[in-house]
Amino acid sequence: MPVQCLHLSLLGLTFVAVLLVLSPTSTHERVPSFSSEAASLSRPAEVNAVALSSPATTRPEAVPEPICKPGEYDVGTWRMREAGIFDNLNEMSEAYGLRPGVPVQCSPPGVGKKHWRDMSPAHVSRILRTTSWEWQPENGCRLHDFVVEGLIVRLLQAYSGMLLIGDSLTSEHFHHTYNLIGHGPIKKVGADTIVMLGDHKDTHYYLEKAGVGLERVGRPLVRKLRHDKLLGGDELRELDERPAADILHRLGRRQEEPWLADARQASDEYEARRKSVVLPGGAETSEAQYKPTIVVVNTGAHWSRTSMKVDSSEEVIRRYTDVATRAVDLMATLPGIAFFYRTTSPGHVGCATSISPNPALGNYEVKKASKAEGVVKESRYDWDTFPTLNDIWRKLYHEKGGFHLIDAWKLENQRPDAHLHPPEDCLHHCLPILAHEWTKILWHEIVENLL
């Protein structure tokens, strides 16, 4: 071959090699701390391992949206998905990553709580319509992609899994979590606990993915702890008579508040486990190093003048501030706890008349409903104070830190159409809509902060 041709051939090969090296092949971002290698194990058929960012939405990988920074995701609007309203419940469930055959609640107006299981055409139609909207942040950012399998693995990697603490709105989060992960070896025990069983063919798959042993089987993955105000009635009443510092210390005693006792126990187990895997001389055993237990707290919907037996909202807010501040201080003393607070969701007076999201409600604060308007319930529950209660936690988040904030107030406030049983219940939500957003934000924080 002539020398000139040889030189040209070599130059051509070099140019191709440079292009191959410089060509981007993937988007670099933080990823959840579980391996994507199956290691000779096959993924259970029921597991949705596809990243779920918005239902039935695919994004071009060539131009990825920026990852949302704190406070960015909650500023935006709801838009109907490109494919329009879901055709059927199976399509909707698959888009949200729900386990097969999961029951969905979203009663048509006037049906009431007793008949929510009656899947009439009107009921199915409302479910499909309310679930077909997607939240779009104003600046075009996105959360880290939510992966159902990743959540299962992360729960296994925490010795005590996840504690969901709060009132009936927290129950929505618990039920949706089970609707996502409750398949195969993962079952609900009683009303408030989710565990992984050891006698299922897929158990070993999950344990190996999580890097934990059989000792993890049978212990809770998720527990729901019902506590409307975090403090008991006697302690709340004594806030009037004694300084906050004198009474709020009782929030830290196991026998006083069961939710904190469980959080403290999870912390103690974490510390004992962390110490037990280090042998004399510093040698480590082959046992897993467990990650912090996830603790998600919410309190607010039951902080009203009626339930507190006081005349002024200012007094309710004063007591609430004391309890919130003390809770943050106490949780900060517990090692092995990843503490999250979820903002209180708004109620919407007259929700039965809403059939779609309302962007005009982005900064709307629910007003008091008077007896003259024919509505008593909303006034009694003081929905108009929820923004103030949420601002207390935002202030604590920025000034004290020590916890992560699941702030979904604005995106929730635009969904007067998504309440559970209009018109008698305009506070609780249809599943999976808003509880799915809570879960996505929670997962984003876990990935973003390498928890």
Task: Quickly list its features.
451 residues, alpha/beta, 36% helix, disordered N terminus, single chain, globular, two-stranded antiparallel ribbon, 15 helices, 7-stranded mixed β-sheet
Structure explained in plain terms:
With 451 residues, the chain is an alpha/beta fold. The chain is 36% helix and 12% strand. The protein has 15 helices and eleven strands. It has helices at 3-22, 89-96, 121-130, 148-157, 168-181, 203-210, 233-238, 244-248, 258-276, 305-308, 313-331, 377-381, 386-399, 409-413, 433-448; strands at residues 76-80, 133-137, 162-166, 186-189, 193-196, 220-226, 293-297, 337-342, 404-406, 419-421, 425-429. The strands form three sheets. It has a seven-stranded mixed beta sheet with strand order 4-5-6-3-7-8-9, sandwiched between helices. Strands 1-2 form a two-stranded antiparallel ribbon. A two-stranded antiparallel ribbon has the order 10-11. A hairpin with a 3-residue loop joins strand 10 (419-421) and strand 11. The N and C termini lie far apart (61 Å). The model is unreliable at 2-40, 243-249, 251-255, 277-287 and 362-379 (pLDDT under 50).
